[in-house]
Amino acid sequence: xxxxxxxxxxxxxxxxxxxxxxxxxxxxxxxxxxxxxxxxxxxxxxxxxxxxxxxxxxxxxxxxxxxxxxxxxxxxxxxxxxxxxxxxxxxxxxxxxxxxxxxxxxxxxxxxxxxxxxxxxxxxxxxxxxxxxxxxxxxxxxxxxxxxxxxxxxxxxxxxxxxxxxxxxxxxxxxxxxxxxxxxxxxxxxxxxxxxxxxxxxxxxxxxxxxxxxxxxxxxxxxxxxxxxxxxxxxxxxxxxxxxxxxxxxxxxxxxxxxxxxxxxxxxxxxxxxxxxxxxxxxxxxxxxxxxxxxxxxxxxxxxxxxxxxxxxxxxxxxxxxxxxxxxxxxxxxxxxxxxxxxxxxxxxxxxxxxxxxxxxxxxxxxxxxxxxxxxxxxxxxxxxxxxxxxxxxxxxxxxxxxxxxxxxxxxxxxxxxxxxxx
Length: 423
Ligand SMILES: Cc1cc2nc3c(=O)[nH]c(=O)nc-3n(C[C@H](O)[C@H](O)[C@H](O)COP(=O)(O)OP(=O)(O)OC[C@H]3O[C@@H](n4cnc5c(N)ncnc54)[C@H](O)[C@@H]3O)c2cc1C
Description:
Layout: E1 2-4, E2 11-14, H1 18-29, E3 34-37, E4 53-54, H2 67-75, E5 82-84, H3 90-102, H4 105-131, E6 144-148, H5 151-166, E7 172-175, H6 176-182, E8 192-196, E9 200-201, H7 204-217, E10 221-223, E11 228-234, E12 237-243, E13 246-249, E14 252-255, H8 261-266, E15 275-284, E16 295-297, E17 302-307, E18 310-319, H9 328-337, H10 349-353, E19 358-364, E20 371-374, E21 381-385, H11 395-407
Parallel strand pairs: 1-13, 2-3, 2-14, 3-10, 5-18, 6-16, 14-21
Antiparallel strand pairs: 4-9, 6-8, 7-8, 11-12, 12-13, 15-18, 15-19, 16-17, 17-18, 20-21
Helix pairs in contact: 1-7, 1-11, 4-11
């Protein structure tokens, strides 16, 4: 079927999630001929059904002091928002060991300015895509509210607000009454909240659609239902890939395979320390128009995003390998978890019956930072993965940086903290 020779194709991108699409976007803008190959539909990995939050407020990496202890407590509670499936898997054990070692205050302090810078640069690029490129992906920058109803949730909000102050990021704590003013359509049972004014949101499936339509119009070839089965190596370079539908060759290769990236890289004897972290989302069409600002619920770790078609409820972090099975109990917790904050925030039985639960796999690195950059072993291979719960938020800056790397230009962010070789 297909066969692209090196002269025809400059860059081949493995993975048609939000990271692969944004990489293609900035590469084609620089005049490169680009193709994307995906084993399924575009966006079907983790990129279409997530919460769609753009989150400068998420500047603290997942690997932070206290997270290991909290994780251990949650592990034994089937109703908690976090779960690691116990299994004798060497990769998981190594990953957990690296995670525990990375969870230091020094790592947090080193990572916060970088993550904030990446989110803010991404936000500006989203604005550009919406305004200058006139892409309609439901982009709205009207902040995010974090709500709490207990002392534990309040402590989390306090810590976030305090850490933000050190970075000159204005986040404010709000009384319950002040939260109510911002959410006039909801009855609330909360103790207070934090206001995250820089945060924004978008409709993830629309983002995927407008990006892939724009790319196709610009001549980018998108091969769906085409699985990469082998990477072809010649003289320290990845010359191309074998797929279920034939061979593809290119001068440069970008690996943006999300949670699958580690499996793909294994063929090159490259060890990418990634664990898949499963999450779910559900829609409440009856809440359309009721919520004007996205919510993050501090205790239950559920995100609620107002979309045109209703409110999306998203949550749960289950480390159980690459496994798309649905845990009904945890889905039910997402469905019901928001009603502790407001009796108005629930999904009816009818709405549950009418929908398919969405499952996504976040690609998690052991230090909570993505992996972006060339590898030392293959001159023409660029890796762009490991964005965990921030892949949408960090997609434009990642795509821009990938295009800068391939162009041999100075990158918009420093890459030393993001190199694969740090592990
Ligand atoms: C419940 C939930 C809520 C979330 N909410 C947010 C949020 O609010 N904000 C945010 O920024 N992030 C959020 N995220 C995280 C975000 O969804 C991910 O970080 C992001 O989608 C990762 O994008 P990606 O392109 O790296 O991976 P993916 O979207 O998973 O794309 C990887 C692609 O590679 C393809 N692929 C894999 N193997 C092969 C192969 N062998 N051959 C060809 N193709 C292959 C897959 O089919 C897939 O399409 C959320 C995630 C979840 C689960």
